[in-house]
Amino acid sequence: MSNSSWVFVLYVFFALFLNLDAFELRKGQKTERISGSAGDVLEDDPVGRLKVFVYELPSKYNKKILQKDPRCLNHMFAAEIYMHRFLLSSPVRTLNPEEADWFYTPVYTTCDLTPNGLPLPFKSPRMMRSAIQLISSNWPYWNRTEGADHFFIVPHDFGACFHYQEEKAIERGILPLLQRATLVQTFGQKNHVCLKDGSITVPPYAPPQKMQSHLIPPSIPRSIFVYFRGLFYDVGNDPEGGYYARGARAAVWENFKDNPLFDISTEHPTTYYEDMQRAVFCLCPLGWAPWSPRLVEAVIFGCIPVIIADDIVLPFADAIPWEDIGVYVDEKDVPNLDTILTSIPTEVILRKQRLLANPSMKQAMLFPHPAQPGDAFHQILNGLARKLPHDKSVYL
């Protein structure tokens, strides 16, 4: 596009959209309730609808692992830790396994971190086999269903395939012992061997207190059109390029690095959270896995997520109306991002922002401590409650 064309687009954008956005949304913070079944599901209360028995395992499966490396409390897979803590004091917990609808085995499978903070799940299959052998030897409940009324939190990139490289994960497949269990996992991609039918897909963990501390006054306008901070190439793991993010991130950089509507960079500034709150659109492209914490951050900060990940399965899809709050862009259409985003009518953008401003939407994406009504913990329980009653065929 020529320089004169860019000047015209920028003029129209600033004159017609940003001022309208600042006046109508940031100052008054208008919100819109999610309508239909999604809104009803989002506001469900799981208490009284199910009972969960938490197995008491030796601390080597959970607490001792965390003591060895407290960094696990803040990484994107920390949902397994906080879900355990939540259930221990939750009103859905029962100490009587005979009345339990679900059984939970607290194994921290992603808390073996490299010096750079990346989880290595090589020990996870052995830990999981050991834990299942323990519960099946000491309680009768696993054996009567082969785990069909049990659920596990497996939040790694490729869930219960327990490998950080996709090719190896696919080759390995989901741990056979977990084939009948329900998996709660952040990984979600349609028709993928590492996403089990019936899994509950959840958002990655983002520290709620940290995000709260970076909130800016609602009167500040959204003066950035498109925002992204992150890798475009993973030279260390993909030296030839093209495989990382299936080339989608590289296409973003090559096509829009000089585009004045796009504020994109590999640098991660201290004002990252504040910048997202000043942006209209936040790019959420796939990386090695289809999802990233940007999805959560965008929703929390009211920035319309631009989801670039073909066949992604989004968290709590029956409660969050992703098509209403986000923009889907096929990976092959990344070179046309500027045209796609500038052609969205202002009234459509404003409605997406009103929906994003709904507090219940934000709450469902977070794992706060202490827990709050409608948060991600409760959405997981809602997902489990909707699977009840168990069909008689689950019992052997």
From TrEMBL:
Gene Ontology CC terms: Golgi membrane
Main location: Golgi
Molecular function as annotated in GO: 1,4-beta-D-xylan synthase activity; glucuronoxylan glucuronosyltransferase activity
GO biological process: glucuronoxylan biosynthetic process; plant-type secondary cell wall biogenesis
Membrane disposition: Single-pass type II membrane protein
UniProt cross-references to Pfam families, sorted A to Z: Exostosin_GT47
Domain of life: Eukaryota
Record has Electron transport as a keyword: no
First and last residue of the signal peptide: 1-22
Domain Exostosin GT47: 49-344
Compartment(s): Golgi apparatus membrane
Alphabetic keyword roster: Glycosyltransferase, Golgi apparatus, Signal, Signal-anchor, Transferase, Transmembrane
PANTHER family, sorted: BETA-1,4-XYLOSYLTRANSFERASE IRX10L-RELATED, EXOSTOSIN HEPARAN SULFATE GLYCOSYLTRANSFERASE -RELATED
Family named by the database record: Belongs to the glycosyltransferase 47 family.
Protein name from the UniProt record: Exostosin GT47 domain-containing protein
Provenance organism: Ambrosia artemisiifolia (Common ragweed)
Species lineage: Eukaryota, Viridiplantae, Streptophyta, Embryophyta, Tracheophyta
